[in-house]
Amino acid sequence: LLGQIPLVQSVREAGDAGRPALLQDTTPVAKIFKDLASAVHQEVEKRNESREVTKRVEITTQ
What we know:
With 62 residues, the protein is mainly alpha-helical. It is flat.
C-alpha cells in the first residue's frame, strides 16, 4: 500500500472549482497527496533500478 486518500467532500468540491487539493499547501489532504506522489516516485525509481527497461509496444495493422 503506497498511501490512502480520504474521501472528503471538500476535496471533490475544491477540484470541481479548479483548486486541486494537491495545490492547497496548508491542508492536511495536500500533504497526503504529496506523500502518495513521493511514495509512487520512490517505487518507480526502485523498479527502474532493478529491472530492464519496459519494451515499447508496437501496434501494426494488416
